[in-house]
Amino acid sequence: MPSRIEGKAAIVTGGARGLGEQVVRALAGEGCSVMIADLLEGPGQALADELGSRVVFARVDVTSEADWEDAVATAETTFGGLDILVNNAAIYRRQLLEEETVAELEKIMAVNLHGPFLGIKAVVPAMRERGGGSIVNVSSLAGATSYPAHGAYSMSKWALRGLTRTAAIELAPSGIRVNAVLPGNIRTEMSPTTASGEIPTGLKRQADPREVADAVVYLASDQSTFVNGTDLVADGGSLLG
Ligand code: NAD
Predict the structure, then answer these.
(1) Rounded to the nearest whole angstrom, what is the distance from the C-alpha of residue 99 to the centroid of ligand 1?
(2) Which protein residues are within 6 Å of ligand 1, measured from CB?
(3) Which amino acids are annotated catalytic?
(4) Tens digit of pLDDT for each residue in 39-70?
(5) pTM value?
(6) What's the pLDDT score for residue 2?
(7) Buried b (16+ CB within 10 A) or exposed e, 113-132
(8) What would the pLDDT profile of 108-158 be if each residue is shown by its tens digit?
(9) CA of 31: how far to CAs of 26, 58, 95, 139, 182, in Å?
(10) What's the CA-to-centroid distance between 80 and ligand 1, angstroms?
């Protein structure tokens, strides 16, 4: 079957490591041009160098409107247009609500919610020029249920689903689809479990980041042209109880 992603151009935030790195690898492997948009210059540039001329690194802080403007302008110049945005960058920390501060809450919201919001605003004109596009927001099971000491993170990931649905309905007339992926526990540096990675329900294991990257790529690609405003849970069934 021909690739449903070859020849397209994407920006992947947080693409230097973890889930984002695997999304970059999967997209590039299918012939998509990719900008790795991350704060981590060393790993981001090394990944771009490894994957060849179709992949570029740009130092982007997703909380900065100016960085977004530069990133989209560079992507348009380098790739000739933009079809895909994966809002994957996020930060995580555990804290009980009673101990939480507004300053720490604002830091998490700035990256996990305002970042995707600014990203969507920045890419829409470029996607309209292409006649459409696909935006994938990486939420979390913490955006569908609750865990102790996950208040700020959970608030950001629930809100990201609200942003996803609003963007989906507002941008559908422009041919731009917006969906969310809700991963369960993934084996990355952010992963909140112990080294043993034990998960009590469902498949009872952490995901390899490539397994979740496949879900992201499905939503990014033309394999999902009638899927819009949805949540794709990729958690090995761990929510089943
Ligand atoms: P990670 O910490 O390995 O990677 C996150 C990446 O985001 C890093 O490369 C980091 O440099 C980048 N980043 C952070 N702040 C940034 C900023 N301001 N601007 C640009 N880049 C920034 O984490 P991961 O596990 O790969 O997480 C990827 C996504 O998956 C996140 O949205 C996370 O919330 C979500 N998620 C992860 C898990 C898990 O178990 N690891 C579970 C559910 C959801």
Answers:
(1) 23
(2) 13-14, 16-20, 38-40, 60-63, 88-92, 111, 138, 140, 183, 185-186, 188-191
(3) 153
(4) 999 999 999 999 999 999 999 999 999 999 99
(5) 0.98
(6) 61
(7) bbbbbbbbebbbebbeebeb
(8) 999 999 999 999 999 999 999 999 999 999 999 999 999 999 999 999 999
(9) 9, 19, 41, 26, 25
(10) 28
